[in-house]
Specification:
The protein is α+β, with helices and mostly antiparallel strands. It has eight helices and nine strands. It starts with 5 loop residues before the first strand and ends in a 5-residue tail after the last helix.
Length: 228
């Protein structure tokens, strides 16, 4: 997203355009990293192993009291794919990793984000100017939501067991659905609605910094759509 607009004194930027300092703190901070069916297949292919082997070596299942399960990257003791503060699977890293720390379901001011991450002094966010309005990577957020729904469908049918042959169908289904423009537009409408319900707020007064219409304009600008 090219820079160029300001809203209420805030410069609108895309989180994916901000340069990470590669301190590696995020890789040592996460306690859970959600992975999709497609994450499993993509990372396995990148490593040159089967999806089943990748899952057994690097993933785990987390179940809650309501018998709901999720697939997670096993990062107990630190991420296995971090080396010298760098990600060794960077091209196929999960959506959660790729969008951090701008993976919140809202627009965010850099001032607020700096406050939230001030305990991580080495993070590049702490050196950002205070007058930025940060837009998450909207297209990747849509991808992630679609892949999450596909995984939920898989889990509903097969439970917490990763069955490579059956999972392949859902991997292919996810790849097809992220290309479906109607599905993507529905996801964008949902995201915009959530952004409008949770606007960025003044840190002192807690009053909204943007109206619903301004949020729509920023959202459309980030997508490259007309703001009118």
């Amino acid at each position: 997203m090219a820079p160029g607009i300001q809203v209420n004194g805030l410069s609108v930027v895309s989180g994916k355009d901000l340069k990470c300092g590669c301190c590696g703190i995020c890789c040592r901070t996460y306690s859970k990293v959600d992975v999709s069916i497609t994450d499993i297949f993509n990372t396995a292919g990148y490593l040159g192993i089967s999806p089943g082997e990748f899952f057994s070596r690097y993933c785990k299942v987390l179940s809650d009291s309501e018998d709901s399960s999720v697939f997670l990257l096993d990062i107990d003791g630190g991420c296995k794919f971090q080396k010298d503060n760098k990600c060794t699977i960077y091209p196929v890293r999960s959506d959660m990793c790729a969008m951090y720390p701008f993976n919140l379901m809202s627009l965010y001011t850099s001032q607020q984000l700096k406050k939230d991450l001030d305990r991580f002094e080495s993070c590049f966010v702490c050196s950002l100017p205070d007058d930025l309005l940060i837009v998450p990577d909207l297209e990747r957020m849509v991808d992630s939501r679609i892949m999450f729904m596909v995984k939920e469908t898989y889990l509903a049918r097969y439970g917490s067991t990763f069955r490579e042959e059956d999972a392949l169908e859902y991997h292919r289904r996810g790849l097809a659905q992220v290309k479906n423009e109607r599905m993507r537009n529905i996801m964008h409408m949902q995201l915009l609605n959530e952004f409008q319900k949770d606007p960025p707020r003044d840190m002192d007064t807690k009053e909204p910094l943007l109206s619903a219409e301004e949020i729509k304009q920023v959202y459309n600008y980030a997508r490259g759509l007309p703001r009118a």
